[in-house]
């Protein structure tokens, strides 16, 4: 869940993906989230089966509470993402209003997953290391503690990439307006009318100025003839 979800978060932020179409990146983002959700469900089923086989109580630790909460909210996030952003039925104002919430909730779920993993490996160390105990800092404890630090650093890097404006995918070029064969795009007819009108006004001004110049020349010639 940590690795695949992080890829789904930064898939829009990788510069070499900016040349791909936005629709393709949407499908990749949705596909990675779907894979992460499937893996999370499989892992939860495995945990419950293991607990039931060993007669270990379920849902008693903070690790299990926060983990189950993260999976539930992640499933809601995935469903709303499909319904609002992937399927072409939601209106654009609704998408624009929900996009900041979608981004914030996704980053919050990712941070919650990191915290759940840290609590899980700590809980496992406390239960597993008996001789020597976890408090004696055996090599296994040092190794797993370093793994936890790497998880924190990894999560911080993902959140940093997702929050930097210069890592944001640049806006796509303006799409061309679809039009029937022989038709004119929306607004083109009005623009052409305005252009024709302005051209006509310029032509009238040119004609009037030309006529005035000729009239002045005639008056000058008449004046010159009268003085000869």
Automatic annotation (TrEMBL):
The keyword Heme applies. The chain crosses the membrane at residues 23-45, 65-89, 101-121, 141-162. Its main location: membrane. InterPro entries: CYB561/CYBRD1-like, Cyt_b561/ferric_Rdtase_TM. It is found in: Apical cell membrane. One of its GO terms (cellular component) is apical plasma membrane. Its cofactor is heme b. The keyword Transmembrane applies. Residues 1-163 form the Cytochrome b561 domain. Its EC number is 7.2.1.3. Homodimer. This is Plasma membrane ascorbate-dependent reductase CYBRD1. It comes from Sagittarius serpentarius (Secretary bird). The gene is Cybrd1.
């Amino acid at each position: 869940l940590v690795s695949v979800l992080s890829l789904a978060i930064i898939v829009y932020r990788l510069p070499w993906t900016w040349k791909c179409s936005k629709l393709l990146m949407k499908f990749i983002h949705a596909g990675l989230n779907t894979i992460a959700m499937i893996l999370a469900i499989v892992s939860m089923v495995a945990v419950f089966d293991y607990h039931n086989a060993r007669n270990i109580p379920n849902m008693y630790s903070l690790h299990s509470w926060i983990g189950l909460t993260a999976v539930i909210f992640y499933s809601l996030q995935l469903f709303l993402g499909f319904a609002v952003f992937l399927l072409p039925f939601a209106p654009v104002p609704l998408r624009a209003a929900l996009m900041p919430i979608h981004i914030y909730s996704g980053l919050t779920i990712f941070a919650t997953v990191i915290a759940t993993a840290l609590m899980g490996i700590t809980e496992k160390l406390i239960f597993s290391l008996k001789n020597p105990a976890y408090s004696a800092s055996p090599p296994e404890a040092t190794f797993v503690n370093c793994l936890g630090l790497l998880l924190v650093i990894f999560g911080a890097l993902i959140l940093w990439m997702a929050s930097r404006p210069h890592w944001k995918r640049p806006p796509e070029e303006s799409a061309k307006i679809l039009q029937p064969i022989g038709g004119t795009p929306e607004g083109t007819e009005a623009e052409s009318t305005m252009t024709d009108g302005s051209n006509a006004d310029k032509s009238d001004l040119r004609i009037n100025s030309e006529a005035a110049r000729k009239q002045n020349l005639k008056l000058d010639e008449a004046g010159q003839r009268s003085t000869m």
